[in-house]
Amino acid sequence: MEKLDLDIRYAELNDLTFIDYLQKKNAEDLSFYPKQVFEREIPNQRILLALVNKQHAGYLYHGSISSQKPIKIHQACIEYDLRGNWYGAGLVGTLEDMGKINCVHGISLRCGSDISANSFWKLMGFKCVAITEGGIRRMRDINTWFKELNVGLFPFDSLEPSDKKKDASIWAKRKKDKKQNSMLRGKALLDYRKTILEEHENN
Question: What is the dihedral of CA 79, 85, 91, 94, to 10 degrees?
Fold first, then answer.
């Protein structure tokens, strides 16, 4: 079997086309970010890139690294035909090493309940610490995963992650408004979901 060389480095602006392409290719599994966000974050060294035999293989987009708060993983994605070879683990492991060097307490991320990546995060030692409702278009849950890097004195409780499947039936029936703002987050997203469900029940 051919040995594949994995190289991990920070993305450069000439990697932007690949990053945006891979995000769009996996749109059902990822939160969407405009291309301009990646363009802004690359100089800030927020996007780790995985290359296999010097070819683009995947990326990991993370938040700021500070000892004051956990590192947030905003997106992580590997080319489909390269999955299962632990290239994603290489990206996550690199971020963990950076976190430990900077005395970061842990790493957190959010993952849709119907996405196979939930099993990957569990294998990587992350624990599900919260389950919340997702957006109206998919009607799935969102699992919040967390991994301690510098283990504290008091262990935190973990949950069995939700495996609720996607259900687009309500969204499909809403003919008059198919333009959900994909940048809605947090309370704004839940308020939007509540409004649509109330309209659906009253029809």
Answer: -170
Share of the chain above pLDDT 70, in %: 77
91 token code pair: 């990206």
First to last CA, the chain: 59
| Rounded distance between C-alpha atoms, residue 184 and residue 8, angstroms | 31
Split at pLDDT 50, 70, 90, the class of 1 is very low
3-class DSSP state for residue 14? helix
Total number of residues shown for the chain: 203
Helix (H) or strand (E) holding 189: helix 186-202
Q: Based on the number of CB atoms within 10 Å of its own CB, is 47 exposed (0-12), middle (13-18) or buried (19 or more)?
A: buried
Strand boundaries in 127-200, DSSP class E: 127-133, 141-148
Would you state the structure tokens that stand for residue 141, as one six-digit string?
């849950």
Per-residue pLDDT of 51-67, as tens digits, reads 999 999 999 999 999 98
Record the pTM. Answer: 0.80
Which CA distances in Å does 104 have to 97, 99, 100?
10, 5, 6
Contact status, residue 20 vs residue 77, Cβ threshold 8 Å: no
Q: How far apart are CA 133 and CA 119, in angstroms?
A: 19
Q: State the Cα–Cα distance between residues 172 and 137, nearest whole angstrom.
A: 8
Average confidence score pLDDT of the chain: 85
Q: Summarize the confidence of residues 38-52 as an average pLDDT.
A: 97
